[in-house]
Amino acid sequence: WDDYKFNDDDIADIVDKVFVNHGSNMIPYGAVVYGLFLNYPASGIFGWHTSNLQSNGAIIENVRVHDLYHHSEEMVGLTTNKHGISHALNGPLDAVSLVGEDMMEQIANVIESKTGTFKAEYVGDLITDVHLAYYKFASNDWDFWPGTPYYGDNGELIEWAMGDDDTYGDIISTDKIVTEEDLAQLVTCNGDRMQHPLKGIIGIKISGVENVQFKGDITVENLYDSSALGSTLCGPYTKANFGQQLPYSLGYSGNMVHGLDVSFSDIEFDTDKVYLHNIIS
Fold it and tell me: Rounded to whole angstroms, how far apart are CA atoms 178 and 175?
């Protein structure tokens, strides 16, 4: 790597930030950090609790969860056909990268005020260029893909970005997006790079587990979430992506901190001490 040089300084800067030194401060920047997570028999990545199934039986004895850090990087995306645009790794393409900062600000103003117009053209960056070009040239064989991307029911986002067909020139515009409902659903917020809903830090999370026993000394301390306030591009909201689940998170939730979170579970405390301390956001 040290012997390889980019001739284009802008590309070199993007590669360095995205692939080389991203997260070099060693603080996790994804959707959530758990200290201890007991779950129903399924994955717990989308939503907070999404199953009627229960796991059974756990003893949590003399456990100390401590010194967890988190700094969310919210990824703001776009939708088409009321479906979040996603690349082959199940994440949104950055809305600002797709349409540019000035146009994204114009779109946000229209969303918030419910007045005005916009018509976005593709701007793009290295990351979006690669994803869209790969789809254009390799969508005839899904064996080349880690997952199936969604760029519209008929790939219309690709046609819009390439600019070869005027039919798709207005798909991100108030000529096409005419109702308040469609306008409100145009932008997705409160998710990470794979569209997981943001949850912040949870020291101990127990979701859908029966017969859980806490014993001895239970300590949760020094949890620090340094995430900034969420993006205002979605305007005021209670649910800003498909995985956000009320009432667990209301509005932006990337900077939340929970010492102990229990839902749809049966727990018993037979403890000498339960100590929650220095839980900070």
Answer: 7
Give yes or no for residue 124 having a pLDDT over 60.
yes
Distance CA 138, CA 136 (A): 6
DSSP secondary structure code for residue 201 in this structure: E
Distance separating alpha carbons of residues 147 and 89, to the nearest angstrom: 6
CA dihedral 26, 29, 32, 35 (to 10 degrees): 0
Choose the weakest-confidence range: 48-52, 181-185, 219-223: 181-185
Residue 269: CB atoms within 10 Å = 11
| Angle in degrees, CA 204, 208, 210, rounded to 5 | 95
Residues 6+ apart with CB under 8 A from 33: 68, 69, 70, 200, 201, 202
Q: Helix or strand or coil: residue 39?
A: strand
d(CA 94, CA 128): 8
Q: Looking at the chain, list the stretches that DSSP marks H as alpha helix, in order from N- to C-terminal side.
A: 9-15, 95-99, 101-113, 126-138, 156-162, 180-184
Span 218-262, pLDDT tens digits: 999 999 999 999 988 777 788 787 788 888 888 899 999 999 999
Q: What is the mean pLDDT of residues 17-23?
A: 61
Q: How confident is the model at residue 275 (pLDDT cuts 50, 70, 90)?
A: very high
Cis previous bond, 247, omega within 30:
yes
Residue whose structure tokens are 């569209």: 195
CA 19 to chain centre: 19
